Design the sequence.
């Protein structure tokens, strides 16, 4: 079978995105809004988006930053802390402000200092979420410095996630940015329950840990969870291209300025919003699975979130596209996109 030169997909959604705030929001939002109809917006601002009122205000700032004429729906999330008020969270969910809540183990990643210090502390919050069907989105890494950075996801699954699902048998969970074969296996084992999903980033489909050190240290390929060995990348490609329901698109596009990345202690995050769909198309084509891209990008996510699939269609064409070298944020500040300056095989051509 020859691969197609044109793909028509229901408009995809990005189920994990960092839009930031202020000048950075203004600079990066147009990229996400151009390709995706909806996006799950991560709440790790400073200070975090923790209460319903914070999310209402942040959503307004996002909508105000949208280029004229763009139709894009930000789906807001609550940043869980040790002090999250279950009543406020439930009210935000009932009012349609919050779509889900995000669990950052304290200090696991960027702006997670206010995260949950011990999951036992938020048991009443999780019980309430299970009751009302509000999804829990999990950054699945243990924070114990004694655990090797490449093992933190697998250890989290064994010691925290497994017991958590047993304690809360009806809680709906998304394992965010899965990076290991262990995560894929865990999600598949629990798939029949319909209560677990997993997002997979484009960069974790395209790089393994060796790429981070290819010819020198590559700070723009450093993200959390960190890319793992090749066998894990292969497991992620297999999961994403399987078309199976629990696996869906979440870029985890996480912009930081060049200055914040290229320094003695660089920030974690890959900025993939500039050409997210082209990157995924590249990975799916390499796996001979372009026919499954729509399930992963446009169908499985809405099904998990109990939202309608998009009616609108978008087109990807087999036509080389060049990733921008830099995206300007403000005078003297820029973000360097993943695959900056490189040519990709596919181009996003807009609405069908
Ligand atoms: O690489 C990452 N960047 N991983 C995260 O979990 C957070 C994100 C960010 O906000 O920069
Ligand atoms: Zn993230």
Sequence:
């Amino acid at each position: 079978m020859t691969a197609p030169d044109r793909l028509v997909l229901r408009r995809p959604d990005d189920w994990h995105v960092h839009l930031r705030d202020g000048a950075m929001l203004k600079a990066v939002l147009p990229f996400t809004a151009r390709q995706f109809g909806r996006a799950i917006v991560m709440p790790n601002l400073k200070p975090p988006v923790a209460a319903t009122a914070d999310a209402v205000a942040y959503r307004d700032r996002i909508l105000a930053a949208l280029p004229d004429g763009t139709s894009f729906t930000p789906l807001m999330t609550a940043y869980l802390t040790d002090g999250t008020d279950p009543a406020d969270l439930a009210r935000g969910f009932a009012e349609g402000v919050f779509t889900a809540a995000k669990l950052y183990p304290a200090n696991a990643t960027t702006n997670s200092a206010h995260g949950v210090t011990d999951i036992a502390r938020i048991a009443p919050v999780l019980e309430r979420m299970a009751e009302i069907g509000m999804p829990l989105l999990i950054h699945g890494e243990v924070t114990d410095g004694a655990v090797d950075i490449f093992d933190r996801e697998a250890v989290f699954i064994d010691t925290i996630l497994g017991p958590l699902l047993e304690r809360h048998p009806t809680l709906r969970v998304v394992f965010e940015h899965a990076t290991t074969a262990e995560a894929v296996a865990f999600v598949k084992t629990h798939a029949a329950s319909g209560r677990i999903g997993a997002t997979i980033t484009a960069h974790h489909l395209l790089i393994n840990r060796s790429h981070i050190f290819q010819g020198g240290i590559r700070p723009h390929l450093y993200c959390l969870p960190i890319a793992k060995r090749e066998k894990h990348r292969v497991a992620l490609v297999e999961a994403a291209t399987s078309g199976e329901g629990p696996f869906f698109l979440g870029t985890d596009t996480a912009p930081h300025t060049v200055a914040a990345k290229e320094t003695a202690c660089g920030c974690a995050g890959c900025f993939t919003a500039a050409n997210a769909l082209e990157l995924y198309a590249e990975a799916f084509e390499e796996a001979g699975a372009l026919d499954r891209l729509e399930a992963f990008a446009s169908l499985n996510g809405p099904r998990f979130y109990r939202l309608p699939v998009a009616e609108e269609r978008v087109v990807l064409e087999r036509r080389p596209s060049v990733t921008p070298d830099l995206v300007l944020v403000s005078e003297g500040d820029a973000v360097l996109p993943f695959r900056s300056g490189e040519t990709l095989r596919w181009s996003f051509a807009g609405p069908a």
Q: What stands out?
A: Residues 12-309 form a domain with the TIM Barrel fold (CATH 3.20.20.140). The first strand starts at residue 6 and ends at 10.
